[in-house]
Specification:
alpha/beta, seven-stranded mixed beta sheet, 43% helix
Amino acid sequence: MAYIEPAPITDTENPLESMMQRFNTAFELLGFDEEMYDILKVPAKQVVVGLPVTMDNGKIKIFEGYRVIHSNILGPAKGGLRFDPGVNLNEVKALAAWMTWKCAVVDIPYGGAKGGVTCNPREMSAGELERLMRTYTQTMLGVFGPDRDIPAPDMGTGPREMAWLMDEYSKANGMTVHSVVTGKPLVLGGSEGRVEATGRGVMVCALVGMEKLRINPYHATCAVQGFGNVGSHAARLLHERGVKVVAISDVTGAYYNEKGIDIKAAMKHTEENNRSLAGFKGGEKIDPADLLTLEVDVLVPAAMEDVIVETNAPKIKAKMIVEGANGPTSAKADKIINEKGILAVPDILANAGGVSVSYFEWVQNRLGYKWTAERIKRRSDRIMKEAFERVYATSLEYKVPMRIAAYIVALKKVADTYQFRGGY
């Protein structure tokens, strides 16, 4: 299973404005001026290209491609590349900004970027996809680079597509350049631990959060919404650490077992069933909406955006929410969650494990030396724990929820860097 970034926000009016709205409180608390607001909002570079590709029927079709570098003040830009029919410039801008904050929160020397091509990869042959990826790479030769902008897999792309990207970039440079992209196959310089990285970060945040709330993991219960790459690995890793996962779900339905779901059996079922939980016999089928309001200690929304909203937030009984997806809690639900005293670990912290291990892959490629899986797990766990403690301490200092504290940490790091570098 290829690693992909968690689902994006999809505000059709303007996802960038929707994302930036969550930062307004942090801006006010930090006392930033309007100039800094504009600097942090406006992307450093936006590239829109037409991609002519010869299809299998011999006809040429033009696809529209994007690459947005939101910021490179902290280091090379980093962000996924998605092939999806819904890709548009506003979505890419929002996700590029999100990557800036995510890298800053976990203290990784990367800026934020995102890319995409408006296409339906499920309706294209492998040959058509390869020609599309190679054409896209050729148009981005002046953008991509190990010290400039480092793409990664996302929706509709995986290790195979990253291998094509690396090969095309390497041909243009007359040498093999492993470090131009992450999420590659292991044989081409990919990293151990990459596939489970985001789910592992969710697990680490959940355990540290339980410690803060004095919840014993061996007596704790958990519900995981979304059983894709992030949710399945988060569920497995929490289960391995004694947490009883009583409910899981995907687009086909939700399943509940009071005695605990057999996560390995569920993962095996999805592997043999086209990545679907449909027909899973390890729990009774329940309304997917009811999963979010189960009486559990930990709720992990790892599927899509805006699943915790103003209407269902009052019914949530979990003591802690750990956001595996991007934007699973709406802005209006935030206030309700906070008033209920629920510890909400925000997306830009909780699901940053993926970019942490992407960073490790890039470092290994630059060193020309591979780390063991155990070293990668140990170092990624440390990064996530330190980031959690940093955000938690900030939440106590400013007397704000973890979400606002994470934004404060991210914005302060980027803004301070601009000022020290004389950026404006």
